[in-house]
Amino acid sequence: MNDRTKSRIALALAASLISLALAVSASTLILTERASSTSPDPLGTCEEAVQDDGFESIDWDYWLSVNPDIIGWINVPGTGIDYPIVQGNSGDPGYYLYHDAGKRWDYHGVPYLTWECAEGGLLHSPNALVFGHHLQDGTMFSKLGGFIDVAYLDEHTPIQIQTPTEKANLTVLAVDRVNASRETVRLEFDTALDHATWLASVTAASDRNLSSAGFDFDSVENVVTLCTCSYSTWGNERTLIYCAIEMAD
Description:
By secondary structure, the protein is of the alpha+beta class. The chain has a single domain (60-247), classed as Sortase (Sortase, Chain: A), CATH 2.40.260. It has helices at residues 3-37, 60-66, 150-155, 192-205; strands at 70-76, 81-87, 112-113, 128-131, 159-162, 167-179, 208-209, 223-229, 237-247. An 8-stranded mixed beta barrel has the order 1-2-3-4-8-9-6-5.
């Protein structure tokens, strides 16, 4: 093989490598642009009117036509948390971590009620566990991480949750940061006393216990626990916000 032939082969290989690098860069750019342009609102902006009772007027017929898995809506004032809540499925528990309310792939995901709570639903489970992502763009449940600061919490409550048939204000009883590698959230209870004992215990042990002295934990039949990732101490940390339910008239 002469020097001229070797040079031609070298040039051809160099050109191929450059083309491959450009193709990879272009693909990466496209994927990045797609991810960054994904709307943090599960299906884009949806303006809803506020009713006399202070709750948003949700077009349930529309949202249920979009996805029958939609079971509720959450609004946390002043945080941008204003999203549908979907029901998780036991067949694919993490589906809504990376799909929006319209079942389209979306790294934002959408807040969802864990599948174990499907029977009681959002407002009638002994402990309805709702998870949402904590993302750098501040969407989904990211702002809930700030609830560890009681002054911030006070500025952004009460939390409102509604379903197609019911509405409720949530009163925060406690905020806790836990290592999810070592701790789990309890969802099932044998008796009402068992439930009350558990609730008193977790609030007392939480980083922020907001229940008043002498609070009657027996009066709280159902709890909503909001869960998101946080990043203060452990690599697998979660912020848990335990809430009592006050049904709206």
